[in-house]
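Duplicate of #3305? Posting structure anyway:
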């Protein structure tokens, strides 16, 4: 009822009815309801009319069926015409009443008023509905600067770490030693994983030729002999060689250094970190071991020959 009171009030005092949010909402709902009825009810009536026609075909003499069919037909026409009739009624209202204008613009007016902090009249009291504002988080300039500094520091640390890793990888793959020592190691690597004619790995106790079969001291002696240096045949006797050498005590190996173990084993340093090449056993043959400490057992003596390094 308050809606209709508002219509009469705004019409009598000459104000714009379309500026009333509640009135615009009511007219919008009425408009949508009429459109829905215009769509649904005629469909239902058409179905009922079809049934009535079938009955009339079966029993053409029935007066009640004829009247019912005519009534349903009229109802369909009325419901189709219902929004037009309502529009005509609103159009006949006095000119100072702007309800007809509101009726046409109800949906747009409601949306517009709702978005622009609509004022709704209720019981003579006006209430303003304000839109909610999203609070923005305030960060002080000092905090912003500290965050930037932290990010910059992290990126610098990451860059330093990457450069350090690059250097470590470069050192890992770089061969340390003299030109002659590197040539000696490259020659020794030619026998890696080689097999003899029978298919077995080229390792046998007492052998001294890696082209056929050799043990650890035979392999080392064969490689150094290729470069004009004679070594004792037995691994434990190699430190007593007549060739001049220095003992390495800092653990920093160079290509061509000889690593002797008290467990009667011997290997050659490759110059790549702690890596050595040696004739290990029948199962492995001539192989590379990344740490000289893992290649043999017992006390270790590292020899650096003058003629090599």
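Output from current build:
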């Amino acid at each position: 009822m308050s809606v209709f009171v508002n219509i009469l009030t705004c019409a009598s005092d000459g104000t714009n009815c379309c500026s009333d949010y509640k009135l615009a909402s009511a007219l919008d709902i009425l408009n949508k309801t009429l459109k829905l009825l215009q769509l649904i009810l005629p469909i239902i009536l058409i179905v009922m009319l079809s049934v009535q026609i079938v009955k009339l075909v079966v029993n053409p003499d029935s007066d009640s069926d004829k009247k019912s069919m005519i009534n349903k037909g009229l109802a369909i026409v009325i419901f189709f015409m219902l929004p037009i009739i309502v529009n005509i009624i609103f159009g006949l209202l006095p000119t100072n009443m702007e309800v007809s204008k509101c009726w046409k613009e109800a949906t747009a007016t409601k949306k517009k008023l709702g978005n622009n902090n609509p004022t709704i009249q209720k019981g003579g009291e006006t209430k303003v509905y304000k839109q909610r504002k999203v609070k923005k988080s305030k960060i002080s300039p000092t905090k912003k600067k500290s965050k930037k500094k932290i990010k910059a520091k992290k990126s610098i640390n990451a860059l330093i770490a990457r450069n350090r890793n690059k250097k470590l990888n470069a050192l890992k793959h770089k061969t340390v030693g003299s030109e002659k020592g590197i040539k000696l190691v490259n020659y020794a690597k030619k026998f890696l994983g080689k097999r003899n004619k029978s298919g077995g790995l080229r390792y046998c106790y007492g052998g001294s030729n890696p082209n056929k079969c050799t043990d650890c001291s035979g392999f080392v002696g064969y490689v150094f002999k290729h470069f004009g240096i004679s070594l004792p045949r037995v691994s434990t006797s190699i430190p007593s060689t007549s060739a001049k050498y220095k003992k390495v005590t800092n653990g920093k190996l160079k290509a061509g250094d000889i690593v002797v173990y008290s467990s009667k084993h011997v290997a050659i340093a490759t110059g790549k970190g702690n890596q050595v090449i040696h004739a290990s056993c029948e199962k492995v043959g001539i192989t590379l071991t990344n740490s000289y400490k893992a290649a043999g057992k017992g006390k270790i003596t590292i020899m650096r020959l003058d003629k090599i390094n």
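Confirmed duplicate; merging threads. Residues 179-305 form a domain with the endopeptidase fold (from Nostoc punctiforme) fold (CATH 3.90.1720.10). The chain has eight helices and ten strands.
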